[in-house]
Structures are given as structure tokens and as C-alpha cells.
Records
---
Amino acid sequence: MSVNEKTWKPKVVAFCCNWCSYAGADLAGSGRLAYPAEIKIIRVPCSCRVNPMFILRAFERGADGVIICGCHPGDCHYTSGNYYARRRMTMLFSMLDFLGIERGRTRVEWVSAAEGQKFANTMNEFAKTITELGENRKLGDLRCK
Amino acid sequence: MQKIGVFVCWCGSNIAATVDVKAVAEAVKNEPGVVVSTEYQYMCSAAGQKMIQEAIKEHHLDGIVVCSCSPRMHEATFRKTAEAAGLNPYMVEIANIREQCSWIHKDMAEGTEKAIILARSAIAKLRNNMPLQAGTSAVKKRCLVIGGGIAGIQTALDVADAGFEVDIVEKRPTIGGRMAQLDKTFPTLDCSACILTPKMVEASQSEKINIISYAEVEKVNGFVGNFTATIRKKARYVDELKCTGCGLCMAKCPAKKGKNEFNMELDNRPAIYIPFAQAIPNVAVIDPEQCNKLKNDKCGLCERVCTAGAINYKQQDELIEREYGAIVVATGFQPIDANPLNELGYAENADVVTSLELERLMNAAGPSKGTLVRPSDGKHPHTIVFVQCVGSRCDENTKRGKPYCSKICCMYTAKHAMLIREKYPDTDVHVFYIDVRTPGKNFDEFYRRAVEQYGVDYIKGQVGKVANENGKLMVQGSDLINGEQITIAADLVVLATAIEPDPTARSIGTMLTSSMDTNDFFTEAHPKLRPVESPTAGIFLSGVCQGPKDIPETVAQAGAAASKVIGLLAKDHLVTNPCVAGSNELLCNGCSQCEKVCPYGAITYIEKEVRGPGVREVRRIAQVNPAVCQGCGACTVTCPSGAMDLKGFSNQQIMAEVDAICL
Amino acid sequence: MIANELKKRALELLADGTVARVLGWQPGELEHDWSPALFENAKDMEGFVYGKYAGANLSKYCLKLNKAEGKTLVMLKPCDTFSFNQLLHEHRLNRENFYIIGVGCKGMEDQNGLLLKCTCCKGKTHEIYDEIIDDEEARQPMPEADRFEQVSKLEQMSHEERFEFWRNELSRCIRCNACRNVCPACTCVKCVFDNPNSGIASKANVTDFEENMFHIIRAYHVAGRCTDCGECSRVCPQNIPLHLLNRKFIKDMNELYGDYQAGVGEEERTPMTSYTLGDVEPGIVHERGNE
């Protein structure tokens, strides 16, 4: 498929913790492991820095998928940050599901600094899921205009 | 309006091959705030850095975006570059267009488009950046070690050796800890006291080490480099400076029925006592629960016989307040109480003993002067059964013991069995075990010697019951290898009881805001990479307080903790990370939620008069100690009002990035 | 009658100086909804009422009185005490500034009968009080109902149906802020939606973000602290079932992290400020239930 201005391309925001997942993304890069350009990474110190409001904001602004990556449970640089993130994201995702937003637009994945391959695989999978789900219309349309 | 400069790096062909760098520089030229946008082959080179510095000066930039490799690679470089040109180093943002763009995409158009978005996102973030100043705080050059066992002693010796002052606070009347109670040590079988007591003496003679025995830490305030501790030195009723340790008072004391803690209460000691011959300080202490003079004002014999005039019945607890730069927790362990384990008959039978009791029974300075006898009748036991994993490796739901492996039991049991077989070859020794775990240098060889050379009978299986039948201890257990239930008529049963953290650990952990696991072991800052530091800065962990360990491991960890302490105390000032959390007092509810998720205890609450537009009242508000905060941001998400924010990764900064990416 | 006893006792406490004022109810503009009211003397107290239309939870009104001179007598029904206690946990109220009379409750009503919150009553035990005034009838348990019934029903629907349901409900919102103003967990000194620097407020109406996300963010912010008092839905002039959002969070927390009721006992971590090593992964959301 040629790159056409009119063709819809998904927008995906990936929040990556500085210590594990961002380093994992760098490793994917230095290993030249490709994943779609639709994925843009935002660096945060820890997955526990990701405020659910950032995710809602991203969706509302037109993101089609949001993924949060952090250190594996037990390996958090700050010892407990990803445990809090895990609960927060579970609750948020469940609420989005409850509101009728398609499952699969949100994801949490634990990626270590050594898992460049996992990072690339995860991003490829996620981009595929989002492309299949299509454009995210619902969250911006939760109220009739 | 800010003046922002954008610098796009080619990284040779690393970036330029898949990203049209000129197009990127051109595309962001008209972004709000951008006054200069340019590209260069190697931004990190001297020439590239010079280019940035000149642009900062020429255009009076107050922020720069470098589109280059990962910030993990060169963020520090470009911050220094900016700082040298008079720009605040935290007004630098990096757009990662190499690892996260050019290296993973092949299509030039695609790569360029993404690079532009990444650059825009970095510019959007930068527009919300604030200049940040790294603070400094002075370091108090003294270390507090809580616990005077082998872990605490070793840490203190190493820290003192580097020239820093150390206070050891020991709750018992003497230092030495559990190791002082041991007879021999595995896998070399050298005498525990022979290797421990020289270290105790060395500690007491060091000019840098101050031993505060019979004392407990009562309160700790402050933060890394700047702790203040209040230590309660309990009344000994004996003047430490005058007492010579001659022991005459002990001999004359009429109240001889005190339980001898040092000998695991297997025999008695007088009301005035020195715990053991090599105690340090070698000073008597009076047990106020037992002393007739202190209880009923009768007796006073010790005062009369003391030629040094050291007895002082009026002595009071003393409170010592001192400042420390670092605190080491070395609170050690105790064996669990075997009394509730009814089926093993510990509570009813004097001849069912714990391993630590056996240590005392085998020790030359113990209650039986080193002759192995049964506590009930003083007779030599001919059949001895060891039971492994008593209270260790238990199902958490049964609440009958600890879920973890106590780690030392397999080895000390092999040691006991071997020593007994060597000294009393007529004795049959059986060991019931679940697994034999012998990782450690020369450990497995040691265990195999017990089996192969000394003929110790190892039986894989658990013991179901120990019952006393006419003076014989009938040990019923399963032999899993032969698939049968067996009963051994034993004279002595030794329980390898689990070890647990000292009961004071929990309150010390709370005092230090140092996190603990569900078993009350202290948590390390990182389970692999920072094993001797607590997550709370300035608190270090030494020995079993962090998890079960044998002596060599304890000493290794004690030395490692000391080196971390020395690294800290060697600094005059600590530079603090400016990317820390901060609470906007006008928005703070004082609800205490942020404090609950802070892994570092960096948040406290104060009553403060808050002034703002239309506001002037005293409120409870959160305060972040920037020297303690590590900048994870857990608090910022917990805060419902948005009062808590993280510098360098603020809500507005991240929202701006989100907006730039999603536009 | 409980109302007479309450009045008598309040007058006594006012007279002997134990309390400086009384927070109770008086008839309001709507016949079936009595309003919270402050009484400072015996004459004021003539307007005091208590009975089946005293549905309003007075806990939040205590915030303004926390720094008032002298103690405030506050009357709390059993379920209201959860809210009050939760505010104590959050250090928003000082216990010593209040004299709490735990009042007996026989189920509150409005023009349509039993209030929604009373159809799944949280019990007749007061979590916190100085004294209790009730009668035998008030101690009788209410008929039990499954408070998560409607949440479960929604969970069983398809995504499209759920989306239509919520779109239909939320589109009616006129952003009157009644839910926020009445909510005893919504007590921020300054709400994020009123703070232009928070990144989510948009007073200038540049985006729909705030309008779209208001109720989701509000529910998330009170998650773990919401006692499920149901005031949000009770006061909504558009009859949006806002409590369902809160109950969804509560149901999830109960199912995933163990049963929890905000406002019980002593101050402790809520499910949102705590964790266990073995917590479920967020992916569970995508695995369970319908679709």
C-alpha cells in the first residue's frame, strides 16, 4: 500500500519508563528491529508516572491506541512504581471497557532494558490490533454534539 | 515568548540515511517559540557543541531541542553544552530520532514525517520546561549501625577503617550477637568465638568506633546525609567506666535464678551478670526484674563487694541525640518459637531442643561445659534425630511457619551431625529433610562428608509426630525414598527452627521509613543491582535483617554496606536530583494519599498558613523533601487535585507531548 | 419518634454549651427532599425536621464547619457515617470539632419511593458516633438487594450497546456540577476542572475534552475513596445514573483486590494506594466477561 495522505493511519502513543522500557526501545533501535512509524514514544521516569488523564487526553485528541510499558514486576527502579501502575491501568482499562470502548486499544506490557526484541514484537502486535480496530471514534464522541 | 533553538543531527548517515534532516529542520522552523532551526553532521562533536553554544548566545535562547540519538546516550552531554553557554541544563530536551526513528524505519518519507512529530513533541514539552537547580546538602560524617552482631561489627570496622566515626547501638548488654552463641562454624569447623571475639575487641579498641550497648534507637528524623537519632541507653545500674568486669558481684549475688539468655535459658544466671566471659563491654548489668535491691530495696550485696565502687542503684536511662550521615540496619534474627508446633513436642519434652540450644549444649562454655547430654537427665544420648525445615518453607495459608527457606539450617545440621559422630562415634544420628540445600563454597563437599565419612543417616521425608513413650522420644516420619512410614526411638530430638527477623525490626523499619516485606525482612533498593541499600536513601542493610544468610554472606554484605556508607560519607555535599516531586500548597488537600504511595518516605505533612488569591488560612499540606525524593512520580497520579507534580516530567509537559503526537 | 428525640437532645447540647451549632435538615423547596440546614439556637431549631425525606448526607457540609469556633453537632445516618469517617481518614475533618449523633434510619424516600441508595442499604450500624438516637424499627435490616445488579447487566451487554447506553446518558449532562458539589469524596480545595493549569480543564471551550471526560475522571479520582453513598445520582437533575461508574470501580476492586468499603475503621491504604506482588495484569480486562 502506498503512503497516501488520505489513507487512515493509526496514531499510537507509547509511554515508556526511563529505566527499562525506554532502554528496551533503544535496544530495538540499535538492533534495527522495525516496528511501525505510527508508534510514538513518550519518556516517563516510571510507569507509575502515567496519569490516566494522559491516556484519556491522548484518546480524546485522536489517538487510536495507548500502550504503557514499564519494568517487569519486581524489577521497578523505584521498587514499587509498576505495582501501582498495574492497579491504576487495570481499573482504567476496565472502566473504558465498561463505557463501551473497544478492548485492545489499551495495553500494558512489561519490557526490560534487555528485551529489544520483545519491544519490537509488542509494538508490531499492538499496531496490528489497532489497525484492525480502525479509527477510534468513540471516546471523542461520548456525548452527542 | 520563549526563544527556542532546534538542532537536528545527521549522526553521519545513521540518521540522515532515513530521515531528511534538512526537511526536519525546515518543518519546525515555524513552530511557536522556535527562533533558530538548523542541522549538522555530528551534533555531539566539539564542532557541533560549539555550534549550539554560539546559537544560544547569538539568539539569546532560553531552551534547546536536540534531535539526535537517545537521551540515554547524550542528554548529559548536551546539558553540559548548554550549561557552559549559560543556559540552564534542564532547558534541554532531546528528540530521539535515531534509536526510535531512523534505525527502525526504512522509508525516507515515513522516517522524516515521524522525526518531525518527535521534534514537535520535544518542542511542545520544552515550552513547558522550567529552569531547575540541583540543590546540595551537607553530609554529616558519622555512621549509625543498629545492631552489634557480626554484621554490625564488620560494617563498623570497615567504615571506621576508612576514617569515619561509627556508633554501634546494641540492645543487649554486649555486642557479639548470635554468632557469639555458636559453637563451631561450617564448613571449616573453626570455633565461632575464636574468630568473632578478636573482631569484638578490635571494634572496642578502635578510636573511631563508639559502642553504645544496652541501648535502643528511639527516634530518627532527617534524610540522607542528615539524620538525627535519639538513642535510649538503658540503666545498667553499673557504672560502665568504673566496672572492671572482675565478676565478684556475680559470685556473691544471692538471686541466682535468672534465666540465662545467652545459654538459651538452659541454665541460670545471677541478677547481676556479665552475659559471657568475652562480653564487650566487659561490664556487669543488673536485671531489674530479678534484683532484690531494685525490687524491694533489700540486699545491696553487690554494692558492698564491688571494690571499684561501680554499682549505682539509682542509675537512670540516658537519652543520647546524635547526627548521622548514614544509618546501617544490622538487626539480625532470632529462631522462631517452637512451642506452638504441638506435634513436635518441644513444649512438653526437655529433650526436644532447637539447634541453637544444641549449639550451647555442645559449647565448652555452655551449661554442660561442652559435654553433650540430655537436658532432662544429664545422660549421654545414643540416638539423635534432627528435624529439618521446622517452620521454614511452609504453606503461607497454614500460618504454621514462614514461607521462605531459612537457608542456614541444612549446613548447620550437617555440622552438628558431623561433630556428634566425631566426638561420640557410638551415637546414631538421623536427619529428616525435605531437600538438602548446599550452595556455597565447599558446602556440598561438607555435607557429603557428613554422609559418606561420618555415616550420618539422611532420611528424605517429614516428621509427623514426636511422642514421649517411657522416656524415649518416638519420632514418626515418612521415608519417601523407601516409601514407608518409620518410627525412630530417639534420646534427643533437634529441631532446625526457622529464623525470623529480630522482633524490633518492624518498628525500626517504620522509624526509618524503610520498606519491609511481609516477613519483616528489610527490602533492598533493587533486588539484583542494589542489594545492600534500602530504597530510602542513606539507609543501608547489613546481614540477616535483609534475608536469611550464613556468616560468610553476612560478612560480605556487611563489607558491601560499609563501602556504600564510605562512598556517601566521603562526600562533603550531596547533589540532589532536581527532577523531584513538589506540592502546590494552594491546591493540596492534605489528604495523605501521596504519602502512602511514596516508596521513600519523602513526603510529610505540616500545618502551614497558605496564602494565595482569596486564601489565607492554616492548612495541612504535603511537603516533599527533595533530598529524599527520587522522582518516580507515584504521588502525582495519586493526587486528585493535581497539587503534586513532578519537575522535569510535569503534567503540563507530558500533556503537551501527548497533544503534539496526536495532532 | 426519632425526630422529637433528636430535637430535644440537640436543644440540650446547645443549651449546655457542648455544641455551638447543629447541622441537620429543614424542609426545602422540594416537598420530597429536605435540605441540609444549620441551626444555631433554640429558635432556629423550630425549623428542624427529620424523617423519610432526610436523604441528604451531611458529611460534606462538615468541611466548612471544621474550623468554626466550638463544636458542631452533626446528625449522621448509618451510611452517612462512612463518608464522615472517610473524611477523617483523609484528614479533612478533625474529630474533636464534631459531636456526632448517629441517627436511626428506616430508609429514605423521595416522590418515587425508596431512594436508590436505600434499595441496597449498607446496614444499620454507625461507623462513628458520640451517641445514637434510634428506635426498634430503625434497627430492623432493610430488604437486601444486589447493588451490583445493574453494573453486571451492563457488563453482559455488547460494547456497542454499552457505548450507546453511556452516550445516551452522558449526553444529557448539563455540567451543572451538582454531582461534584454534593459528593463527600469530591473535596479538593480546588478541583482539577477549575484549574486552568491542570491540563484537563478547558474553560475557554477550546476542546470537548473536559466535557467528554468529566464523569470518567471524577469517578477515577474518587475510586477507593467513594463510599457508594449514591448522592451523585440522587441530586443529578438529568437523572444520569452516575453511581454506576463508581459502583463499577467498587465492583472491580472487590473482585480483583478483595472486598473493600471506604470509610470503615481506621485510616489505611485504599485499593488504589496499595498493591500486592501477585495482582492481576491489566490484560485481564480484555479476557473476562462478554465479547
Note: Chain A has one domain: 12-138.
---
Amino acid sequence: MLSKSQARAFFLGGTVVTFSIFIGLTIYSFMPNKDQSNYTKLDKQVVRGKEIWETNNCMGCHTIMGEGGYYAPELTKVIDRRGEGYVKAVLTSPIPWAPNGRKMVAYNMNEKDAQAMIAYLKWVGNIDLNGFDRVVSPLAKANQ
Amino acid sequence: MKYKSQKIAYWFFALAMLLFALQLVYGFIMGFDRIGIQGLHDIIPFNVARAVHTNLLVVWLLTGFMGAAYYIIPEEAQRELISPKLAIVQLVSLAVVGVIAIVGFHFNHWEGRKFLEIPRELDFLVVVNVLLFLGLILGTLFTGKRKTTTALVLSMGLLFAALLYLPGMIWFDSQVMDSFFRWWVVHLWVEGVWELIMGGILSFLLIKLTGVDREVIEKWLYVIIGLTFLSGVLGTGHHYYYIGVNKIWLIVGGIFSALEPLAFLAMALFAINMYRKGEKSHPNKVALFWTIGSSIVSFIGAGILGFAHTLPQANLYTHGTLVTASHGHYAFWGAYAMIVLAMISYAMPNLTGRKRYMMKTGSAAFWLSNIGILGMTAAFGVAGIAQVYMERKMKMEFMTVQNEISIHFVILLLCAAMFTTGIIMFIYDFIKYGRPTDEALVDQKTKAPEFSSKEEVFELN
């Protein structure tokens, strides 16, 4: 029968081994030759777009790469799907955008911020998502 | 209670209940938003309500864990808390940081990262607060008369939870890296170190409520938390399938997250077996309901519902849908909310000296909240599955699908009303009968046995 010290060894040993593998896999995932995100194409405008994305908590309603609020559409490939003009119109609108009656916050962005958001969304749209981008609708329409 | 400083726990439980009640209010705002009633949109848009709802969840659970620790550690270490005054300072500062964060969300002052919306400058205050808390807990534990496994596991969980908060404070230019390390906090908390905290509290409650030998319970505690880390750490990979990192996570995440239910199954079997094994019967049946209930509901919510969409082939379709919300609600409720409510139910009669063990309100609170949340989980689940088929199989537009599934949110709101009724009854009991008193202090030399040889149920209602 298992003793308490054996049980403790199982816990401590398992923890050390799995954490070590986890750290190893994390390093492996971010090796330059494993990059799937076009990291080198990150420029100041994209980073500014990410800042705006976070400052306005867009993820609180939308999803990006499948992560977010499930309340408003997935935006990973929104530029492919809707085009830059549509996205810019939504971001610069002074009144709440309300497709099908569901209201969005009116961000009334200036030209510079709207362009930064578009650059960020374009960058995200080019990430290799291991097939998710071909399945998730309405992203799938861009891939048909 | 055995030590006067255990009374501190009451104030943490009180703050936790206040935040829990507020969390429900914001949940209703979101529910009404989803069926098109958006009267509060200009003041509290959905992203504000969501940030408040999820952050209040995290903060009230952490406050509950802290309260549990302030109750458990002095009893396990067999000494008073090293500084009750600093514990009060810690409580007040925690409440102040929480209020600033929640008010700030209403003025667009946040990080905009799911579950980690608290802005970075407040993160530093959180760190100071948690360091003070850990100092008090670890100081008490290591200067105490004994260091039990239960106390060590609970403290280790709290320490790791604090350490794992740090990766969430780092800024990343890349959305991929941001998401990757955000899960270091969120996943490794809820499917890792928080389970240590849950295991520690569960172990304490089972020792007290069943009378089974501490050595037996603590041995199995090691096995359970061993299984938790063995599956849960590499199981983080199920969040990495489709966020722009290497395909190796599809294999690693798939295998190890499929093993995650084992830890929850072990926890449920452990709790039920210890209950059966216990020869003596503790009169606090409501605490026992919440304790055993927590282990079973966490197995269903976190284990089974998590497994249902954790394999990459299934997750490809369910990722980013309401299926996740279904699993999330039942998992958080079973694993963490119920164990905090179990702890409060156990501690209340001991802190007050009132032998209110099997109250009608307590029992009704348990059943109403549990049936209510089960209905909410089903409503989210049905909406999620319908969303997957319409959106991802039939390629329908997002908002067209949302309108089609809005009826499920009417059901959700009705079930949420039942759930809230149960919680209101729990909080009513807590407010009316929960205030601690020094008269409840048990003299260790003349202490009466905690168990009765035959079942004693005190019907005071």
C-alpha cells in the first residue's frame, strides 16, 4: 500500500518533471525558426494598435484568435472579410455601431489610431493559427 | 473556534460575500445585454460588465481563500496569528485596491486582457498586499507548534498563486506572446495552484467533518495534487492550439489535458470515500453538503465538461464559443465557489458559538443555487453547441446566429434568478447569524468533543 512519503515523492517528482518539460517547450515554441506570427514584421504602428486594443478592452466583447468575450464577432481575419474601409468606418463612428441591434461603444477614433488598429488587425490576420483560421466562421469565407 | 485571531476570517468572508453579490449584479447586466435589453449600455457597456464580472469572481474567490487560510492556519499551526492587526490592514488594502480597480473599469482604466484587466500600476499594490498576506500566513505556520501537510499544501498553493501572478504583469508587443503568457497566470492558477488551495481546504474540512485519520487524508491529498500538476501543467497546452504557436502543443496539450479529469475524479472519490469511512457523524450537515458537493460538481464542471472540448479536433470548432462559457461557469462554481462556501458554512457556527447546523435556509440555499447553476450551464451549453453548428458548420454570420440563440439566454436568466435566490439566502444567513464572538472561544483543556457518537441535527428554524 502507498505510504505518505511515497505519495509526497510522487507529487514533488511529478511537479518538477512536468514544470521542467513545460519550460523547455516554452523555449522551443519561441525559437526564431518556429515563429508562426511574423514577429519580425511587428512595427511601431502594430504595437500602437495593440495598445489601443488593450486600452479599450476590445477583448471584453470581441474575440481574437478565439479569445475574448463571445459577445461580438471574431476579428482575427476581419480585414480580409470586411475590408479596411468598413473597419475604419466602425472605429471612427461618433455614434454606437449597432449591427442587428447589438450596440458597440462609439470610439470616434482619429485617423492615426484607426490606421494603427488596422495595421494591428492585419498583422494578426497573417498569423498561422494551425488551421483555426480555415474553420472559424465567418473567417472561413476569406479562405473559401 | 480555538484561537481568537481566527475571527479575522469572518471579515474576509464578509468582503467575499459582498463582492460575490456584486458579481451577480453585473452577470445580470450581461445576460440582459444578450437578449437585447441594453438600457445601461451608455454607462456600463458589455465589456465593462464583463471585466467587472470576471475580476470580481477572481477577487472574491481569492478573498475567500485568504479568509479560509486565516481560519485554518492558526488551528493547524496551533498558535495565534502572528499579527491580527496587520491582517486587518491587509484586508482593508485589498478592499481599497479592489474598489479602485472596479471603479476604474467604468472609466476605461484597464489592461484589456481577459481575466487580467487590473491595470499594471495596481498590480504592484496587489503584489504588496499578497506579500503581506503570505508573510502573515507563513510566519504563523513556521513559528507554530506543528506543520501539517494540510497547512503546507494550502500555503504552497497561495505562494505559487502569488508567484504566477508575475508573468501577467509583463508587457509584450506580440499578441501571440501576450496570450501565451496570460495563460501562465490564468490556466496555471485555475487548473494548477488553485487546486492546491482547494485540496488544502478540502483536506481540512474532511479531517474536521468525517473524523478520518489525518494521515490517511493527507496521504491522498498528495496523490491528488500530484495528479493535478502532472496533468494540469502540460495541459496548459490546450490553450495554445490555435493562438499562433507551434503544432507540438496540439499533441502535448491534447494528451495531458485529456488526463486532467483524473485529478478531479480522484478528488471526488477521495471526498466520498472519506465521508463513508468516517465512523463519527459531525452535526454540521450543510458544511458537509457544500464540501462533498464541491468535489462532485468540480469533477463534472471542470473534469467532464472540460474534457468534452479539450481534444484539438473538437476544440477547433468550439474554441471561442459559448461552449467555453458553459464549462467555465460550472467549473468555477464547483471547484472554487463551493469550497469557499463550504469553508464559511463550517466556520460560521464555530466563530459564533451558535449551533446552527442544519438550517432550512442553509439547505435551501445549497439546492437552489446548485439547481440554478446547473440550468445556467445547460443554457450556455445548448447555446454554444447551436452556435458551433450554425456559425462554424453552416457558415452563418455571427450576429444572425446570436439572434437565433438569444432564447437560450432567457432560460439562462431564469436559472440565474434561481441561483441568485439561493445565494441571497446564504448571504442572509451569513449577515444575520455570522458575527463572531469571543464567547465562542473553546477552552482547549475543557473542550467538548467535536463529534457526536450519534447524529445530532439541530433544527433551530
Note: The CA atoms of residues 96 and 105 of chain A lie 5 Å apart.
